[in-house]
Structures are given as C-alpha cells and as structure tokens.
Fold:
Amino acid sequence: MTKTIGIVTSGGDAPGMNAAIRGVTRISHCMGFNVLGFERGWDGLLTNNFKRLGPRSVGGIIQSGGTILHTLRCPAFEEPENQEVGAETLRKNNVDALVVIGGDGSFRGALELSKRSGVQVLGIPATIDNDVYGTDETIGFDTAVNTAVGAIDKIRDTAISHERIFVVEVMGRKRGFLALQVGICVGAEVILIPEKPLDTYQVVKIMEKNAAKGKRAGIIVSAEGAGDTTKLTAEMQKQTDSEVRLSIVGYAQRGGSPTARSRLLASLFAEKAVDLICEEMGNRAIVLQNGIINSIELEKSAQGTKKLDLHILKVADILSS
Ligand code: ADP
Ligand code: F6P
Structure:
C-alpha cells in the first residue's frame, strides 16, 4: 500500500542529518512511498511548509553537514495548541508516518505529536551531544568529537612550544559526553563536565601537581555547561606562574562533513525507520545498542535520561598523569 512519509529535522543541527534524510527518502521511494520534507523544524508543521522529496532531490548531500530541510529551536511547539496545529498538518496532508531527526528535545515534541495526531512517529537520534536515552551513539557525535580533537591537537602544539596552559571549551550545555570523549582523545590534563564541575582551586592544584612532575604545558577541556571558562582562565592566570589562554571550539563542531561513521549510522538508522514503517510499528526511537541497530518505545527514549559513566573520568585522569 502506498504511504506518505514526512521527514523533519529539529533542534541543533548535527553532521549526518543529510545522510539520514537521503536514506529515509531513497528507501521510502524504493518501497513506493511518497516523501514530504517539512522545512525549518517544527515550524514547518505549524505553517504547512514542506517540499516533496524524491531520490534525485537528495543527491550529493551525503557528504555535507547541516540539513537541507533547515532546523530551528521552536519554543512555540511546546504549547499543546500548537502541537494540535502540527497534528492537523499531518492529517490534512495524509501523512501516514513522520520521521523526526533530532535530539532529546525533538523526541519530546515527537512524542506529543504522536499522541495528538494518531500518526506513526519514528525518532532518529541526531545531536552532537550524544545525550539521547537508549542509544549508545547519535548521528553527528563522532564527527563533532573528531572536529574538536583536530582543533585541540593543533592547540597542543602551541601549548607545548610556549609552555602554556590552554583552557579549551567544547560544546555540551547540559551534558558532558562530548567533552569527556574529546578529553580522553587529546590526553587532556583536566576534563570539566556539567555532571562533575571543579572549582578554580581544584584545577590549579591538579596543574601544580603536573608542573611538579615536569609537565610544563597543559590542556583543560571544559564543556560549555561546566562553568564560565573566561572566568576560569582569568583566575588561573592570577593563581599560577604559567601563561593561561582560552580557546573556544564552538559551532565548528556542529558543522562540517560527517565522518564515515556518522554517515553509516545515519544510513542504517534510516533503513530501520522505514522498515518499522513498513511493519506498521510506530512511536519507536531507533537506537544503536552494542553495535546493533534496534528500536525502543519513543516514550521511553523521550522521557529517559542517559547516564554518563563517571568511571571513565577517573580513567582519563590516570591516562593523562
Ligand atoms: P534537540 O532536539 O537537539 O535536543 P531542543 O532541546 O532545542 O533540541 O528541542 C528541539 C525542539 O523540540 C524545541 O525547540 C521544541 O520545539 C521541541 N521540544 C522540546 N521539548 C519539548 C517538549 N517537552 N514538548 C514539546 N516539544 C518540545
Ligand atoms: O544540542 C547541541 C548543542 O550544540 C549543545 O551542545 C549546545 O549547548 C547547544 O546546542 C547550543 O544551542 P544553540 O544552537 O541554540 O546555540
């Protein structure tokens, strides 16, 4: 039976979202389905703004960052009356299933929409933060880690030459998955994450210990949400003999060509989403669990909180000792 599939990208963009749009579109067409791409996140459902997607309209995008459908934060969609408008948009366009590509916030919106519309909603986890419950990895995380690692490797060179300490801020306003993985991969002397922030005194003590061991340069990786890095840098400059500099990697981590891993994950998540649609299994989140692509209830994923393994932080400390 011919179906109409909607696709929307929502929340912060993540490298690999385009690969997921491409995958859902092409696999849906292969099944004989029509595809509508809603533009600008949830706003596209509030304004009935969509374009028809065919196999050719998603050509040449697997390697590009961002999202051809555009995305935004849409606080209005948290209001029940606006979710009703979104549900009506799906109904009037005869959408049988909606694939939502985004992070945990987008999944919460997707859950509300599924309850109001009666349309099958599938969540594909895509965010550089890797903080979606139920999946080991989200689309874009690997790319963002590699972007930050590449930048910090360069910073390490100048840190060593000048015997300086660098505070490097990476993204992650609420969670430290990105900072932790980046910190391990660059051998950071200190990793600051929202789940376990340290004060300036504690950071200075660690750097003093390192100096006593002969380490004259150092990298402190701090997640955006772990504290004010400008303040930390200024305070450290006053409290240590070293020169301390701040570098913010910032939005470079959100863009750029997705790594092979992010593209593969996006393509396989897309296949699983269409597979579930064919089996009439709606309201599921696609997840990666121990190397296997699987699905769990959308509600479970949207309402769960992914735990960060703080043991890894201890391992990181030993590795950089
Ligand atoms: P991400 O999906 O990357 O985590 P956000 O947290 O900004 O990004 O969420 C994206 C959008 O999802 C929000 O702008 C809002 O429109 C919608 N959203 C977030 N939380 C809810 C909620 N509890 N109910 C309905 N919609 C929500
Ligand atoms: O959700 C991804 C993310 O990049 C976070 O790491 C960061 O804190 C936030 O988005 C930034 O949000 P905005 O795009 O609204 O500036």
In short: Residues 12, 73, 103, 127-129, 171-173, 224, 254 surround 6-O-phosphono-beta-D-fructofuranose (ligand 2) (CB under 6 Å). The mean pLDDT is 97. The CA atoms of residues 11 and 72 lie 5 Å apart.
